[in-house]
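Record 1 of the preview.
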Amino acid sequence: METVNDARKPWNPLGLRKVLGRYRAIRAGRDALNELRIGGKRLRQGLDVAAYMRANPVRCLQIGAGPTSMPGWLRTDLRPILKGAVYLDASKRFPIPDASFDFIQSEHMIEHIPFVMGVAMIRECHRILKPGGRVRIATPDFARLVGLYGRENVGVAWRSIESVALNIYKSSECAKPIFAINSAMHEWGHQFLYDEETLRDALLAAGFVNVQRFHCNESPTERLRGVERHIGVSGDDEVNDFESLVLEAERP
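->
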């Protein structure tokens, strides 16, 4: 009778434990390194914020600065690009004292975080603003984008649709409302799109008053005038204004 020589090694639980132990050690080391990096960011963040506040009697915070630069503003971003910009995770508590800033501006940023975090961000804005301080938030206008569907689009509305087709989908055949709407909802890491009612309600719930809507770069307050720099994929200021919802509100 022929026998089969099974060369496989028997299961060794001790060997498996060693492998798992090494894996846990590597993971723990990576976690510790990540915590050190975050701790370093927070330390530098606190120093930069304190230095800005000492140097500026009128304090202006820009949340999600990206590649934009505004003199006199504390420019912050989750991934700072330009020299002088400061790390800030807007989904967490700001490392800024209560009632210490005069103006806050955030342009096409709040849609990149989930709704619950966006509400928390608005509450943080209320907390750090002085009484009488103002916040200005610009974000894609969901109602206007959805309104493109099922109608004949001309002028700036058509240019909005066409820019998405050519710049995102690289095809004029995609110059249809359905592509523009899906692009706004899913591209660039967007998490939640607001309509005016939802953003207004979030501001009011946080304690803001005098909520007003404006065109891009228009404001009755000089410091908040001309602050929109985002022109989107179109490179067209009129298209950006068409697509954007811009609200200002005041802390009482």
